[in-house]
Amino acid sequence: MAILLLDGEANQTKFTDVVANRDDVQKMIERIRFYVDPEAEKAGYDKMTTILKITLKDGRRISGRADFGKGSPTNPMSYDEVAEKFRAALHSRSGRAQRRTRSLIWCESSKTYRTSAR
Known about the structure:
With 118 residues, the protein is mainly α. The protein has a domain at 77-118. The chain has helices at residues 2-7, 17-20, 23-31, 38-43, 79-91, 95-110; strands at 50-55, 61-66. The protein is flat. The mean pLDDT is 81.
């Protein structure tokens, strides 16, 4: 949650020791409180309701609610969202892993399969 609030996104590239140990992230973690909200509990487990309540420095409050997380069967990701998530995950891998994955994607997309005669 801290990384999402500070950086505006929380994908695979953000879940590293370097990012998690940043001073601003650690300070934000100290300011976040997680709790079971009675309204979310009342919605039932089939919805997995998430309620955010943010208090700004000037005292104003912002709130939001989501009954189904992105990527759930009720709120599926689009093809482009899945592709972007894959690209972000691939970017966080080593050069060798990236090359191997790109080769597999190229083989699949070009449909150039070779069979050996036995």
